[in-house]
Specification:
11 strands, 7 helices, 30% helix, three-stranded antiparallel β-sheet, Aminopeptidase, eight-stranded mixed β-sheet, Alpha-Beta Plaits, single chain
């Protein structure tokens, strides 16, 4: 059994999460900005489907991507150097989330980005904690990624593409931004072969929590990220 959280109930320690399903920690329908920030600061994230209560997770091990360890293939580097795209930060956050929710994915039916999740994260964006990195091609949103930043820690949530490699282009620029601004790690939550091919790796939850505790307390005030361009020095 997992505990049900009301608005006054703190999260249980992440060590209390279930082994099966991996990382399920608690349930509770509070998706306020306060609750979400509390969760992320402890390495906890919400993930649930339409019709379910809000489910909170902290899996072990944890998939992460270290900005300096991003692996750029020869073909992706060539694509980046074409410079036929524009990268924008935080200009279309809601559109990126909507695309992540609606673009079909192999072996995935439906979406966990429900309307209530959309509004909750748009609220975090307004507060300066949630960000989008967008790839624009010929004036159209071609791909992107969104996530949450606290201190010098970034939590990747989802990415999409309408054009081949457009999400990878956004990820490369996100990783550059994170590295240049002293971010130590991007949380990728669960292992995928796609993330592993880009340099992502699993670390024990204990190690993740230890690094997280340091990174979230490094100075980095919330606010809109400002960048437009297509610098292609790779």
């Amino acid at each position: 059994m997992i505990p049900w959280l009301d608005r006054q109930t703190p999260f249980p320690p992440v060590e209390a999460a279930l082994a099966e399903p991996n990382g399920l920690l608690a349930a509770g329908d509070d998706l306020s900005a306060e609750r979400l920030l509390q969760a992320y600061r402890q390495g906890i994230f919400p993930w649930f489907s339409e019709g379910q209560p809000v489910l909170w997770w902290s899996p072990d091990p944890r998939m992460v991507l270290i900005p300096a360890e991003l692996r750029i293939s020869r073909s992706l580097a060539k694509r980046l150097r074409k410079r036929d795209y524009e990268i924008r930060f935080d200009t279309a956050f809601r559109d990126v989330m909507l695309a992540c929710a609606t673009v079909p994915r192999a072996s995935q039916h439906g979406t966990w980005i429900t309307p209530v999740m959309l509004e909750a994260y748009c609220g975090l964006h307004e507060l300066g904690y949630a960000h989008s990195v967008e790839t624009w091609i010929e004036g159209r949103l071609a791909g992107g990624i969104y996530g949450v930043a606290i201190g010098r820690m970034f939590y990747g949530e989802s990415m999409f593409h309408h054009v081949t490699d457009a999400s990878k282009i956004a990820l490369v620029h996100l990783m550059r931004h994170l590295q240049q601004n002293g971010f130590g790690m991007m949380d990728c939550q669960m292992k995928t072969s796609h993330l592993a091919s880009l340099g992502g790796r699993e670390i024990p939850r204990k190690e993740f929590s230890s690094q997280l505790a340091e990174l979230i307390n490094l100075p980095q005030p919330p606010g809109k990220w400002m960048y437009t361009g297509n610098d292609a020095t790779y």
